[in-house]
Amino acid sequence: MAVAPPWWVVNVLKGGARKSTTAMFLAFALASAGEDDVLVVDADHGTQGVTDWATRVYADGGTLPFHVVQWAPSQGLLVPFAQRAAHEVGARRVLVDVGGEAPEVLRQVILAARLVVAPVGPEQGELSRVPATALIAREARVPLHALLTRVPSPGKGIAKSARDYLTGERLNVLTTEIPQDRETYAHVWGTVPDDLGAYVECAKELCALEGRVS
Length: 214
What we know:
By secondary structure, the chain is α/β, with parallel strands linked by helices. The chain has a single domain, classed as Rossmann fold. The chain is built from nine helices and seven strands; from the N terminus they run E-H-E-H-E-H-E-H-E-H-H-E-H-E-H-H. Helix 1 crosses helix 9. The longest helix has 14 residues, at 19-32. It is globular, with a radius of gyration of 16 Å.
């Protein structure tokens, strides 16, 4: 029997937390490390950020070093949809971008997940949504790892305060932090970026954590 590819779900129950950016940069980072069979599933049927990014690349005559598919509720249950797509492209890893206002979709896909990556900025409005997201992950017995993004100075000031808050809530927080650098992480939307910044180390850290999950 074929071994199912590991699934990473990118979600926090808050809109505008850079979930699509995180999913795409992680896919680029995995591809740059030699993983040429990655599938990214756009399950955010509201904003469709992954789909928009991929469409812009292809419209400009470019190509992506990974596969992208778009899911909508009209296509049936998310898990079998993603399983079929993974089988069709021969994916060895699946990343699923779930909308921030769709806990019902998160509850579907988390049952097939190896881990959850929760991108979150240092603002309290975003940080306060991580515990609710983690509760869904805990109920499914899937580890959730918060990823601090858009921090002015990694490891210092507001980034340290955010980390202290999350660890105080007994949540896992990735060591890697994504700096507030629009030139690297925002202005490249819809392109194949040359500089993947801190997401290279983030992908390595997640791969190492994945190996500890039974």
